[in-house]
Design a protein that fits this description.
The structure is a single chain. This protein is mostly helical. It has one domain.
């Protein structure tokens, strides 16, 4: 149980970082 909770909270981190990176990159290109 504890492992799955840790796994679920760990997984979104790279996606959030990637989303933020692509958003900032897109904003930088369009500006």
């Amino acid at each position: 149980m504890g492992f799955s909770v840790k796994f679920l909270t760990f997984i979104p981190l790279p996606f959030l970082i990637l989303n933020k990176g692509t958003f900032e990159l897109r904003w930088f290109i369009h500006s």
